[in-house]
Design goal:
It is a single chain. 37% of the residues lie in helices and 24% in strands. The protein has 59 residues and is an alpha+beta fold. The protein has one domain.
Length: 59
Amino acid sequence: MKTNNYFYCYNKLLSFYIQSKGEEPITVAKHMKTNDVFSVFERNTLVINAIDEFNDNEI
C-alpha cells in the first residue's frame, strides 16, 4: 500500500466538499493518539481538483 495514492483529510469541511463533488471516502477513522477524525480518499483527479477549488474559495 503506497501512502501517496491516498489523501488523508483531517478537515471536516474539506471532506464534505470532496464528497459533494461525488467522491466517497474509502474510510473514516479516528487517529489513535490524537482522537482526531479523518477521512481517507483515493488520490485522483476529482479529489485533487476539489482540494484546489476548496483552497481557492476558502476565506
